[in-house]
Amino acid sequence: MSSTTQTFFALIALSFATSSMADPHCFHLGSKLFGKDLEGPCVHHTDDYSVAFDVVSGSVEMVVAPGSTANLEVYSGARVLTVSEDCCPPPSFLHELACPRIQETGECCYTEDTVHVSGFPTQTGCLHSVEDYASYTPTDGTASWPTTNPGANHEVEVYASLHPSGCCECFMYAITCSPCQA
After folding, report:
1. Is 129 within a domain?
2. Do residue 112 and residue 170 come from a single domain?
3. Are 125 and 83 part of one and the same domain?
4. pLDDT tens digits for 118-177?
């Protein structure tokens, strides 16, 4: 194959690889700041540079001051944590993300055999059933799953991220469930 052809196929492969990755983003909910799909191992929020946070599996969750509008700064260097310092290495700065404020929303109802959840924020990465402690990934802003004990579904927990292990992580809030109206 010629080098031009090899370069062409390499660019196509790179295009497909990068298009399937989610864009990094962040958001505020209550007194927490969440980051998702982050490509660096360390972050700061712009309200307080005296503390850094480790990114785990592309996600981070931190408590911020009430009403905070902090942005999130992403770094490619690992967190530096010593007796006198807790920071991301400044030369490894990648970019700053603006973090919008979102609200707790969503509806949950159940029938004899199915739990239905909808209306939750698009930033939701995982829903957790309190009936059997299973995790569910939303599709197109909704999620449904079978139930064998409808009364056990008094609520569904909403999380920002799905950990590679299949568990939900970064708890956001719970949605109260009730029987579906016919």
Report:
1. yes
2. yes
3. no
4. 999 999 999 999 999 899 999 888 999 999 998 899 999 999 999 888 899 999 999 999
Of 77, 97, 117, the one marking the end of a domain is 97
Phi/psi at 56 (nearest 5 deg)? -115, 120
* CA nearest neighbour of 107 among 39, 175, 18: 175
What percentage of the chain exceeds 70 in pLDDT?
88
Output the pTM of the full model.
Answer: 0.81
Could you tell me what percentage of the chain is helix, strand and coil, using 3-state DSSP and rounding each to the nearest 5? 15, 45, 40
Q: Which domain holds residue 164?
A: 107-179
Q: What is the DSSP string of 99-152?
A: --B-----EEEE-SSEEEEE---TT--EEEETTT--EE--BTTEEEEE-S-GGG
CB contact set of 135 (below 8 Å; sequence gap of 6+): 126, 127, 128, 129, 162, 166, 167, 168
User: Is residue 12 in some structural domain?
Assistant: no
- Residue 75's pLDDT is what? 97
Q: Other C-beta atoms within 10 Å of 122: how many?
A: 9
Q: For the segment 37-85, what is each residue's pLDDT rounded down to a tens digit?
A: 999 999 999 999 999 999 999 999 999 998 899 999 999 999 999 999 9
81/130 same-domain check: no
Counting the structural domains of the chain, the total is 2
